[in-house]
Amino acid sequence: MSSPANAWHSFLTTQGAQLNAQGEATFPHSTASTQLFDLSSSGLIAVSGVDAQTFLQGQVTNDIKLLAHGAQFNGYCTPKGRLLALFYSFSLEDVIYLQCPRALIPDLVKRLRMYVLRSKVVVEDASERLFAFGLTSSNLATLIEHLPNIPHQLAHTQDGTVIRLADAASQQRALLLVNSEQAQATWQSLSAIFTPGNTSQWEALEIQAGVPQVYAATKEQFVPQMVNLDALNGINFKKGCYTGQEIVARTHYLGKVKRRTLLAQVVTGDQSPQAGDVLHDAQQQEAGQLVRVAPAENNGWWVLAECRLEAKDAGTISWQGWPLSFKELPYALQ
């Protein structure tokens, strides 16, 4: 019997999609401003049970109790304060969901289960339970019923649960969560209004919104502040202890962070930068690394680049000799 994910990918191909090895979709004629994106290359971890909130409170950087007021970013760290994962977290029907790259989920589920011990908690891969769609438009509120006005707020619609996201590139954005058995019908219904877009286009919007990510190539490379998790309200410094909390708090209270993630574009010819690639300063010394990468419409690349701020201020930062052109982030850094 075909799994929900296999059935979904087969359905997408009937809708004109081409899928790469990571399950990312490419559609023809995907340049409209009102777009629908398949986000099944991201997955979901479900944490449930009477002790789920207490359990996660001791594992991640944000205050899980505040999920009652909306979705939130969360870091999951080693005891040394290095990020194993970045989660976009929300709660539905007494289940807490953690969204992150699907390839990371088996190891993360295994690691989280190690710490359950006697707690009444179930940790499982829910990637085939709920599918995520991305929605964009210059005026999304006219197209989505009950779309919240404030980023990270949730609303329930006839199509599924919608979460308002931060705008990017003058586009209003939302995340739509749909039960897997309803996904095909919902996609076909939305396709009458929204033009299917490439997964890479959604990635570019995420980058322009300043949203970082952790991948297999960058696990344990960053303290949360290095990827701006504090600026994204993804760290709560009053919640108490969690794994890695001492290092994260020390970084905060000792003063200005010396490494930050910045928004940039880079034109590289035929070469393709990847998350984890090393950056260099004008003296060809290590200056940081790429956090997130997506194609830009001008044949270059949008990137989030973690940099030593002193190196950036001193001169050019480059990837394999190609200079980064830095842009303004849509939020302030402390």
Describe this structure in words.
With 334 residues, the protein is an alpha+beta fold. It has 7 helices and 20 strands. The strands form 5 sheets. The chain has a 6-stranded mixed beta sheet. Strands 5-6-7-4-8 form a 5-stranded antiparallel beta sheet. Strands 15-16-17-14-20 form a 5-stranded antiparallel beta sheet. Strand 16 (286-295) and strand 17 form a beta hairpin. The mean pLDDT is 94.
Briefly, what is this?
The protein is of the alpha+beta class and 334 residues long.
Strand count, sense and barrel status of the largest sheet are: 6 strands, mixed
Low-confidence regions: none
Question: What is the CATH topology classification name of the largest domain?
Answer: Gyrase A, domain 2
Helix content: 10-25%
Q: How does the helix and strand content classify structurally?
A: alpha+beta
Taking all residues together, what is the mean pLDDT?
94
Percent range for β-strand residues: 25-35%
Name the CATH architecture of the largest domain.
2-Layer Sandwich
The topology string of helices and strands comes to HEEEEHEEEHEEEEEHEHHEEEEHEEE
Number of helical stretches of at least 4 residues: 7
Biggest sheet strand order reads 10-11-12-9-3-13
CATH class bucket of the largest domain: Alpha Beta
Compute the number of strand runs. 20
Q: What would you call the shape?
A: globular
Return the domain count.
Answer: 2
Radius of gyration, whole Å: 20 Å
